[in-house]
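Record 1 of the preview.
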Amino acid sequence: MKKHGPWTIKSSEQLYQDKYVEFRVDEVLKPSGEPSKYAVARMLPGVSVLALDADGFVHLTRQFRYGIGRESVEVVSGGLDDGEEERAAARRELREELGIEAGHLTDLGLVDAVTSQASAPARIFLARDLKFGEPDRGGSEIMETVKVEFDEAVRMVMRGEITHALSCVLILKAREFLRSEGQVDGGVVKYAGR
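->
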């Protein structure tokens, strides 16, 4: 038995594991002492990156997402490769998905996309000083680039057109970060440099 916050894990059974996700069921004692089971999914740690160009446009992706069964507009996101540092992963994902090299990355913190029955941590970044090239997408990455003004991306979040949790958090945190830097006036990006 081992303590897990106010819970006690009596045993754990791994049901499935691959490169991206692990599923397990724990036999537990609830904080009340009552026995129960608790299913947990552990996702590969990842990164999400909002690419903001010097003209105040953000570069997003649109792709079909298997889990929700529909297309989703999102910031660039992906998992860390073995031993990969988060900044390096952010730069790699930008190159692969959008063909973008970022001169400057601002770390906007860690986000736990889901916390109840899943562990899906992601470090979020704002990318600026962009250079554009060709994407190098993997075989399952069938996506298109979506370029919109930064304030339109904020409105898309608020209207529910962007529903990907990490994208929503990153876009809104980036707006507040830029506002604190004096780079947003009335919701409009004045300067997208660093």
